[in-house]
Every structure is written in structure tokens, then in C-alpha cells.
Amino acid sequence: MNRTALAGIVLMLAALVGGGLYLLQMGPGDDRFAQCRSGRIGGDPAQLGGPFTLIDETGATVTDRDVITGPTLIYFGYSFCPDVCPLDNARNAEAVHLLDARGYQVLPVFISIDPGRDTPELLAEFTGYMHPRMLGLTGTPEQVRAASRAYRTFYSVQDMEDPYYLIDHSTFTYLAFPDLGVVEVFGRDMTPEEMADRVACFADSFRVKLTHPR
């Protein structure tokens, strides 16, 4: 791994650790979602997430307010990813299917960090394999970088000269609610069943089961 990639990972971990320390400093009555947290990975909503402007699968420009209208699972990756992204998004999709069966409608979102190759049409094909409600988002390189910075994610292209280039990137899934932003961060070790249970707990604590327009 090159020095740039290593530096990015260190900065990302520092942000997540800072968010975890924030949660540990809060009193029991200050965190409305305390009973839903595992304590493994945490994030302060004031530090993780934020405004973004991107392009959806139809080519329309959307903002975070258009996308996060209810419980939302957000993952940053790319459709040409050979292993991690398909597995993580399949896990997220399965968790959403389990939540659908329990009456919770959660929106799974896939934000591409590869705007040079991930067109809206390609994203629609990728997300269509995962879940009928999964939303793919792309944008200009500047828009994607801004969204990545807002969520403290990391990505680095290995070799732009290679048409089959790979991208090193973080692999967290973010649970966000409207007006609150990110309330939890899930790692790769989370099973679909565990994720569904945790998301349901957060949704119940939020006291809202919103229906997405998609």
C-alpha cells in the first residue's frame, strides 16, 4: 500500500475513533439510540455525514435531502470492484429484504467513488441486481470527493493509466436519518440478520417508519 493510501486510512480511522470517544463521553440519557449500539464502531452525527449533491441513476441531480427521507443505508464503492463491493452491497440488500418482511422500509444507497467509469446506466444495472429499491449515485469528481469528505470515507485509485484500475477504499456502511444524519456505522463483519436487528432498533427509537417514494 502506498503512503497516500496509508495516510488516508489513518485519517479515516482517526475520525471514527473521535466519534466513538464522543459517544463514550455522553451521558446515558443523552443518546436516544444507546440501546441500539454495539459499541464496536460509532460515530458522532455532527462529525459524520453532511450535505451532498450527486447524480442518480436517471441522470437527475439530487441532494442529501432528496435521498435521506427515512432510514437510509449508505455505502461508498464502485461497480468495477472485483470482490468487496458486491459482497457488502449484497449483505446490505439482504438486510433490507429482512427489514421489508418486518414492515420497515429502508433505502439502500450505493455512492460510486469511480465517476470516470460509473455512469448512471451502469449504476442502475449494478443496483438492480442487488435490490429493486437500491439507489445508485454518481457525479463529477468534485461532487464525489465532497460527498466522501462529508462521510469521512477514503478512496485512492491505484493506477489511472490502467483501464482496469482498482480503487482502494473504506468499506463502512452508514445508517442515516433525515435531519439527524449518520446515527451508526456498520463494519464488514456485520451479518444481514444482525444489521436488520440493529436498524430496526434505531428505526423504533426514531419513532418513524417512512415510505420512500421509490
TrEMBL record:
The keyword Metal-binding applies. InterPro entries: SCO1/SenC, Thioredoxin-like_sf. Cu cation binds at C81, C85, H169. Keywords: Copper, Disulfide bond, Membrane, Metal-binding, Transmembrane, Transmembrane helix. Disulfide bonds join C81-C85. GO terms for molecular function: metal ion binding. Pfam families: SCO1-SenC. The chain crosses the membrane at residues 6-24. Belongs to the SCO1/2 family. This is Protein SCO1/2.
